[in-house]
Design brief:
The chain is an alpha/beta fold. The structure holds nicotinamide-adenine-dinucleotide (NAD) and L-histidinol. L-histidinol binds next to helix 20. GO terms for molecular function: ATP binding; histidinol dehydrogenase activity; metal ion binding; NAD binding; phosphoribosyl-AMP cyclohydrolase activity; phosphoribosyl-ATP diphosphatase activity.
Length: about 900
């Protein structure tokens, strides 16, 4: 029998009668869930939350919705064993990469004329058929002609085994013609079982009550299909634990099966003592998890959770002796947890999570380095032991781990499986190889059919340690990067232009005559098409306006006490170096974002550095901006070597006082190292590394907009990180965002980059706006976009962020290019203490003071006393000599 449950009225299913029925059905295997619409995976979530069912097929009722395979894949990923596709749609959908054992087809035999043809066509691509037939008879048994027809179709369908082994399953759905009162019964089930088919029965027609004549008894629906050739008519029954390990052999009767299903415990038929409720006297009871029927329906397997000392009357777990391997290890660890002998190492691990952490890391590392078969087995055993200690400590059983594995094996969508940057051996190796390459290139392309997907976490389900690791950025291998950057800085410092030219040839693949061009720049070298020029001019005007308004040119003057006047005024930093990235994309917009505030501030010398193009020239857009902001030179170099040239100066490039601008890890590391080198005597704006974005979205957000924003930053580089904090989003809303991410990403020219950066990025589901903003403040993103109802209200709670984009019509792209705000912003969480580039970045402030005689006389005592406290006599004396004169003069005037 195949039971069906209609999920459109879930309230009804919460009554005790149905809860009980569903639990019992779960013991017997597959259940069909009818869902209202194909896209409605949330009704399944709701059902699974309320009831324990692990093997279910999904039958989406509305036929017309089967237009593509995306929703089908989603339902299978969610955990459905099979999806039932209507015969009218099965040939028009591309189901080629869904395994046959996950697909069932429903055929309406009253309407379909060429069922046989269809079955032949579908051979090897589906694993079950549901035949719908209308009964025009009120007799208790099915009409002979119908049985013959169904039998022929069943034989045809079952002619071949499935590609992965096993037989096609046939379900029969019987409907009544209006004037006929045919009601399926145990006899119908028996009749259909005779032709290897099973009856599909709605849950409303089922009962656990053996005396109910109207409804179908669940136990009988099973026992009526069993066969036995034993003289005592019992069924041989293997009893196994949740992981399938045989505990012993017993016998079952129709009556014991009925009792087992009713009580959901291990009940068998003892050949000497009748009904046997396992553990009733010994305490070694069993919770029944499944009853499975073998391939020829004459033996059973009871899957049970065994309590007490074990199944065997000799007080061991199995009748075949003690367990070995993983089961034995798990048992030992559980015993140790309850009562460990003195000095037990395992018990030490239970009590010392740090030690356990270290051992797991150590063993994982050793397993990675193991080479021979013996070494690998040895190290894997170590790792499994320590992992299992962690599991047992936290109440996780081997069964729980296997359930996870089984769940994952049901996923159709393959995970990209990239390692987190921290563990990404491939990219470390690649970085090493890149030393000799011109430019960083994307490592791999998106495999066809691979879903481009962010990782997903739920704040309420993750540990503090996990949360901490989410707050971290893709690791910058600081030591490693520093070790590469140090010799580059030294080389340029010592050998100047010659080193710069050589390093540009090495890293950018360009051999230059001279590493610099000076203003005035050739008009033909900065010629632009009209639309580009107009766009740059418009962006320039907006950025200028906003940055000019930031410049308070007046001096600050405060009389702190009578006759004591303090003031502060600003001066531009004289010589500034602006780094414009040009590795994976050349960014003239960055030239605007750095050049304009430098110009507004009045810096006397502006030098721009940017990697050259392959032909040794600078992109005309960058040169046009350089001209507009009044740059005196453009350095044709990128990476650490460009930073070194700006910091130390070369024969052709003047040293600057401050270096600003974003860049990759080499650029950022070089800026930080140069700043720490007192011989360079420079400052930097801030660490502005790989782009980041955090989006907070609620139920009012538009999935397409959210996805487009996330991708807009993910396309910068493989190391970009984007985060979506989803505030109480329904599974459906979230799924729509995920779908948009995949669809939009798949058609991007930089799909190779986003298919690397998106899987390293993550979605965090939270339950409230407070949780969302707290996480965002802890993360301190470079960019924060608020896709929220009344988004502006959240602004006052934002504590840490580089720049905020408020509401669904404020895409980050506007700030990246042209609205007016700056796009050079702190990353890696530095938004906690750094501002983005602004006009003040290019200014320094000088303070001054002037005291009158009266002022000095009034303040003198305070200063002299403080100097005495610090025992700095010269300080005290500088005031004393004056105060003495002032007082003498005052005496004379009296
Ligand atoms: N935070 C911000 O405000 C902001 C703004 C714009 C861009 N960005 C970021 O800037 C970064 C730009 O990076 P990019 O790589 O495209 O350009 P880039 O100009 O920063 O770096 C390219 C240079 O790196 C050097 N390089 C490459 N491989 C090297 C190696 N193995 N060893 C030493 N040097 C090497 C080369 O000299 C090359 O010219 C991106 O991550 C982007 O997200 C950030
Ligand atoms: N999003 C980058 C800041 O992290 C800036 C940029 C330049 N071009 C496009 N975007």
């Amino acid at each position: 029998m195949l039971p069906t449950i209609d999920l459109s009225d879930q309230e009804k299913l919460l009554n005790a009668h149905f809860i009980d029925l569903i639990k019992s059905l779960n013991l017997l295997g597959d259940v069909i869930l009818n869902i209202p619409t194909l896209a409605d995976s949330s009704s399944i979530d709701k059902f699974l939350e309320a009831h324990s069912i692990d093997l279910y097929w999904v039958n989406p009722i509305k036929e017309q919705e089967f237009t593509d395979n995306e929703s089908i894949i989603r339902l299978l990923d969610q955990g459905a064993e099979k999806i039932i596709i209507p015969s009218s749609k099965v040939l028009s959908l591309d189901l080629s990469y869904i395994p046959a054992n996950r697909l069932a087809v429903s055929i309406n035999l009253d309407q379909s004329k060429d069922t046989e043809e269809l079955i032949k066509k579908l051979t090897g691509s589906v694993s079950a058929y549901l035949f719908n037939v209308t009964i025009n008879s009120s007799t208790k048994s099915l009409p002979e002609s119908l049985i013959r027809n169904l039998s022929d179709l069943t034989k045809l369908a079952q002619k071949n085994l499935l590609p992965s082994g096993g037989q096609i399953k046939i379900g029969i759905i019987l409907s009544n013609a209006d004037n006929c009162k045919f009601s399926p019964s145990i006899e119908t089930i028996k009749e259909l079982s005779g032709i290897s088919a099973c009856l599909v029965v709605p849950i409303e027609k089922l009962t656990l009550d053996t005396n109910d004549e109207e409804l179908i008894n669940i136990s009988k629906s099973l026992t009526c299909t069993l066969k036995t050739d034993r003289p005592d008519e019992l069924f041989t029954t293997v009893v196994a634990d949740e992981r399938g390990e045989a505990l012993g052999i017993v016998y079952s009767s129709a009556e014991s099966i009925q009792e087992a299903i009713k009580t959901r415990t291990g009940v068998y038929q003892s050949r000497k003592r009748g009904l046997w409720y396992k553990g009733a006297t010994s305490g070694a009871i069993q919770e029944l998890e499944k009853i499975q029927v073998d391939c020829d329906s004459d033996s059973l397997r009871f899957i049970v959770k065994q309590h007490g000392p074990g199944f065997c009357h000799l007080n061991v777990r199995t009748c075949f002796g003690v367990s070995k391997g993983l089961a034995a290890l798990e048992q030992t660890l559980q015993n140790r947890k309850e009562l460990a002998p003195p000095g037990s190492y395992t018990s030490k691990l239970f009590k010392n999570p740090d030690l356990l952490h270290s051992k797991i890391m150590e063993e994982a590392d050793e397993l990675c380095s193991a080479k021979t078969k013996d070494e690998i087995a040895w190290e894997a055993a170590d790792l499994i032991y320590f992992s299992l200690v962690k599991c047992v400590t936290n109440g996780v059983s081997l069964k729980d781990i296997e359930t996870q594995l089984d769940k994952r094996s049901k996923k159709i969508t393959r995970r990209p499986g990239n390692a987190k940057p921290k563990w990404d051996v491939a990219s470390t190796k690649q970085n090493e190889q890149q030393e000799s390459l011109a430019k960083p290139v994307p490592t791999s392309s998106a495999t066809e059919n691979e879903i481009i997907k962010m990782q997903k976490f739920n704040l309420s389900e993750i540990s503090d340690t996990q949360k901490k690791s989410l707050l971290q950025r893709p690791i910058i291998k600081s030591d490693d990067i520093m070790a590469r950057v140090r010799p580059i800085l030294d080389d340029v410092r010592k050998r100047g232009d010659a080193a710069l030219v050589e390093l540009t040839a090495k890293f950018d693949g360009v051999k230059l005559e001279s590493p610099v061009i000076s203003a005035p720049f050739l008009p033909e070298a900065m010629a632009l098409d009209e639309s580009t020029r107009l766009a740059i001019d418009q962006a320039y005007d907006n950025i200028y306006k906003f940055h000019d308004a930031q410049y308070d040119r007046s001096s600050l003057v405060v009389e702190t006490m009578p006759g004591v006047i303090c003031s502060r005024f600003s001066r531009p930093i004289e010589r500034v170096g602006l780094y414009v990235p040009g590795g994976t994309a050349i960014l003239p917009s960055t030239a605007l974002m750095l050049g304009i505030p430098a110009k507004v501030a009045g810096c006397k010398q502006i030098i721009i550095a940017s990697p050259p193009r392959k032909d040794g020239t600078v992109v005309p857009e960058v040169l046009y901006v350089a001209h507009k902001v009044g740059a005196s030179k453009v350095v044709l170099a990128g990476g650490a070597q460009a930073v070194a040239a700006l910091a130390y100066g070369t024969e052709s490039i003047p040293k600057v006082d401050k270096i600003c601008g974003p860049g990759n890890q080499y650029v950022t590391a070089a800026k930080m190292m140069a700043q720490n080198d007192s011989s360079a005597m420079i400052s930097i704006d801030m660490p502005a590394g790989p782009s980041e974005l955090l989006v907070i979205a609620d139920g009012t957000s538009n999935p397409a907009y959210v996805a487009s924003d996330l991708l807009s930053q993910a396309e910068h580089g493989e190391d970009s990180q984007v985060v979506l904090v989803a505030v109480s989003l329904t599974p459906d809303h979230l799924a729509r965002i995920e779908r948009e991410i995949h669809i939009q990403a798949s058609v991007l020219p930089r799909v190779n980059i986003v298919s690397q950066s998106i899987p390293k990025s993550f979605i965090l589901q939270v339950n409230s706006l407070e949780e969302a903003v707290t996480f965002s403040n802890d993360y301190a993103p470079e960019h924060l976009i608020l896709h929220l109802d009344e988004a502006e209200k959240l602004l006052e709670k934002v504590e840490n962020a580089g720049s905020v984009f408020v509401g669904s019509y404020s895409p980050e792209s506007c700030g990246d290019y042209a609205s007016g705000t700056n796009h050079t912003l702190p990353t890696y969480g530095y938004a906690r203490m750094h501002s983005g580039v602004n006009t003040l970045t290019f200014l320094k402030h000088i303070t001054s003071q002037q005291l009158t005689k009266e002022g000095l006389h009034k303040l003198g005592t305070t200063v002299m006393r403080l100097a005495e406290v610090e025992e700095l006599e010269a300080h005290r004396n500088a005031v004393h000599v004056r105060v003495k004169d002032i007082e003498a003069e005052m005496c004379q005037n009296k």
